[in-house]
Design goal:
It contains twelve helices and 20 strands. It is α+β, with helices and mostly antiparallel strands and 478 residues long. α2 crosses α4, α5 crosses α7 and α8 packs across α9.
Amino acid sequence: MLTNEVHPAQVAGMFYPAEPGPLSALIAQMRQRARADGGVAPKVVVAPHAGIVYSGAVAATAFGPWARRGDLPRRIVIVGPAHRVAFRGLAVHPAARWRTPLGEAPVAAIAHAELAKVRGVYVDARPFAGEHSLEMHLVMLQAMLPGRFEIVPILVGDADPHQVAEALRVVWGGPETAVAVSSDLSHFLDRRAAETIDADTARRIETLDAASLEGRRACGFLAVKGALEIAAERDMRASGLHLATSADVGADASRVVGYGAFALEYSASARLQEADRELLLSACMAGLEEAARNGGKPPAQNPLGGSPALSPWRATFVTLTEGGRLRGCIGSPAPRRPLIDDAIANAAQAAFADPRFPTLKESELAGLRLDVSILSHPRPIRAGSESEIVSGLEPDRDGLILGAGKRRALFLPSVWRQLPDARAFVRHLIAKAGLETSGWPEGLEAMRFRAESFGASWRRVDTEEIGTMKNEAARALH
């Protein structure tokens, strides 16, 4: 139950300036140092909580997409780890308002009351004494988001990540609610070791690999694991936006703290900006031309570079058509490398390694169309019968993976155009996997996914044109 109290700032004058003028000026400076965010529209962000001079630019990258939205979130759930007081479970503060030098933020009363009913959540002010993980997000948000918003602050102690996920489900809300997960990354390693482990942690977050996260990777790993659990359930796409360390702003390089900004958005609505789509397609076309000149061998490295939006780990399929007829299609059902690298490699594989077609000749390039599909995180559906699979699919929108044992097959959502009947869609995929068709395959597993798909007719691409595309992609983010 909320009381009519105000929770005062705990670390003003230590983690950030105590006066509003210098604080606002410092955050404005951090915003100028923020990275391009790829045009994401996140429901959830992960951002650091160190002193603003150290991690403020990374936090500004994370919160940047919200600051640019026309429909700003009216309620922000802030969830982060306890550093000062040891306790079990999760804590919410009884105060009705939180105060910083930038003003007061009201606590969402209904959400607070619902959280108080959740098992393992306690209304207790004591764990918040001296705590900074939630306050650091609040001051950044107050400076970056115009207008009034409510907050739902949740402090995580020694808790099961499933408890965190359950608390987030209770306050998840709709488009009016956003979630800010507070966490730094590695602690007190030398700079090179920190950058290595933080890059690996970013890959694990981008692939929604919650199980592998631990305290040495992120101090707020329990909160991150809870958010990733929901992300996998609700078909979300995670993107790493900005990695840095305290050494980047002059701290001792032998003992650094790592910082990361990540965005999680719904796959059904996620899409690359047009400039990034053009850049990705052009990179695939240039790579395909190089492979055609080298006997089908894809380029060892991306020949044209990329943009931040093309660097997250993604699963892709590349489809080649000629005169409207399939000419090759190969891809990755699960993420295994950065988006741009995966698409370039799969373009070459579709042209030269699809066993259904002869290898592509360089003279055929001019007549090709190349389409890239970016797959979402596959989610299991019941597969005890044909009817169960059909009832779990949304025709024309879901892709499907079926398999038993080592036999697997996949249909992209585009296949619905050739097989609009859901039962025929399932039967043809079972046959494609080489599974028993006279009866229901034993041990059959099914997973559905969404895909962002786009393409263009093949054309020769020069490096000067790619440079222009990269500049346009960067300008679109600012």
